[in-house]
Amino acid sequence: MKIKSLVMTLAACLFLLNVCFSPPAYGGRVDVIVDHGVDKDAEAQARAAVNGIFDFFQKTYGIGLQRDIRIKLSCDKLNYKKAFMNEYGVSEARAASEAKGSLGVQRGGTLLVDLGDIRDNYYQLFVLCHEMVHFYQGQESQDKHGAIGWMLEGSAEALAAHILETVGVKGAKGYKNRSLEMLKKARSIPSLEILHTQPGLMAACGTYGGRVTYTTAAMAVLTLVEWRGYPALFTYFRALKSSRPDDAFYQAFGTKVSDFEKSFRPF
Ligand SMILES: [Zn+2]
Fold it and tell me: Residue 16 Cα, ligand 1 centroid: separation in angstroms?
């Protein structure tokens, strides 16, 4: 029910946006390609969410869509794997391994989401939002957004949760508390320092589990958000265009990234 009302709310927002800002509200071309096998409700919900997220970024952060975006929603692992080959031009072996280890990905403005393999409505939207945040990180930083691994993934997680919580999606409430409870139950959690590089972050996913690793990164980002607010995250990504990662971090949050990484504890 709540999902349905989200669809209605997002559709209403989009309608208002079109009325107020028509003609074109977006500075980039939007292509959404959906496999035939994707459930119709899931497709409608995803399409409404995509438009709602454009609206959210424009209204909340003043960030418009400035580059083309291509979103491919797959119905199963086989088609998701094919999408890696067709959209990114990777080999079949590479596509198989990437598809096996993920549910969504964003590269250079092209998003792939394996919608058919995510059963839960909230999580379908969460993965889509997470990849959309990567799109905006890439747009704002001119694709230099991967400089600090935990900032890349942690802000995608934290912003996805924030967007879904703001629009009132069922199951979205209390993300931070739920996450902290989950981390407290984990056998061990990674230090932020080992999540600094992307290879370090990927290795930690193998050691600690992807969920624990990404959530640790998200809790670090939420600490920064408590200090400086959500817009500071985009100050950082924008600064990456022309600054070294350490300098971009200092500009956005007023502290050295190495000091923050040493001192951070999720609880
Ligand atoms: Zn990600």
Answer: 30
Residues 242 and 150 in one domain: yes
Which residues are CB-neighbours of 187 under 8 A, at least 6 positions away? none
- pLDDT tens track for 209-238: 999 999 999 999 999 999 999 999 999 999
125 CA distance to ligand 1 middle (Å): 14
**CA 15 to chain centroid:** 24
Taking only the tens place, the pLDDT of each residue in 72-101 is 999 999 999 999 999 999 999 999 999 999
pTM comes to 0.90
- How many structural domains comprise the chain? 2
Q: Using CA of residue 57, residue 59, residue 65, residue 69, what is the dihedral sign?
A: positive
Q: Rounded to the nearest whole angstrom, what is the distance from the C-alpha of residue 131 to the centroid of ligand 1?
A: 6
CA–CA dist 187, 208 (Å, integer): 8
Indicate the residue among 119, 143, 167 that finishes a domain: 143
Q: How far is the CA of 153 from the centre of ligand 1 (A)?
A: 5
Structure tokens at 135: 């799109």
CA of 103 to the centre of ligand 1 (A): 10
Q: Which residues contact 155 (CB under 8 A, 6 or more apart)?
A: 133, 137, 218, 221, 233, 237
The rounded distance, in Å, linking the Cα atoms of 95 and 127 is 19
For the ranges 19-33, 152-166, 213-227, the lowest mean pLDDT is seen at 19-33
